[in-house]
Design a protein that fits this description.
With about 90 residues, the chain is α+β, with helices and mostly antiparallel strands. The chain folds into 2 domains: about 35 residues, no CATH class; about 30 residues, no CATH class. The protein contains 3 helices and 3 strands; from the N terminus they run ααβββα. Strands 1-2-3 form a 3-stranded antiparallel sheet, with no helix packed on it. Strand 1 and strand 2 form a beta hairpin. It is flat and about 70 Å long.
């Protein structure tokens, strides 16, 4: 076990190098993030990097119901198939 530990230590990198490589100044763009980042409590992220809020009064964050997201995706897929097939749309809600 001690040999394996020494082998793993040789494969590692110093903590300062690890931090430089992996710690980012902002959350990833493609992942919704809610809260403070890197211990910076001066503002909060509310789902995207563009939506920064006052931590003392962040206001509400609204989420779409997963069912509604899935329905919208399926309706868009159905509309694409209708267009491809030359079938007129029956959606008159818009």
């Amino acid at each position: 076990r001690a040999e394996y530990r020494e082998q793993r230590k040789k494969q590692g990198v110093p903590y300062a190098e690890f931090v430089k490589k992996h710690v980012k100044s902002e959350p990833p763009e493609d992942i919704p993030f809610y809260g403070s980042w890197n211990s910076d409590m001066s503002f909060l992220y509310a789902g995207s990097n563009d939506d920064k809020r006052d931590p003392q009064n962040p206001g509400p964050v609204y989420f779409e119901h997963p069912k509604d997201v899935e329905i919208a995706k399926l309706e868009a897929e159905l509309e694409a198939v209708r267009e491809e097939s030359g079938i007129a749309s029956t959606d008159n809600r818009k």
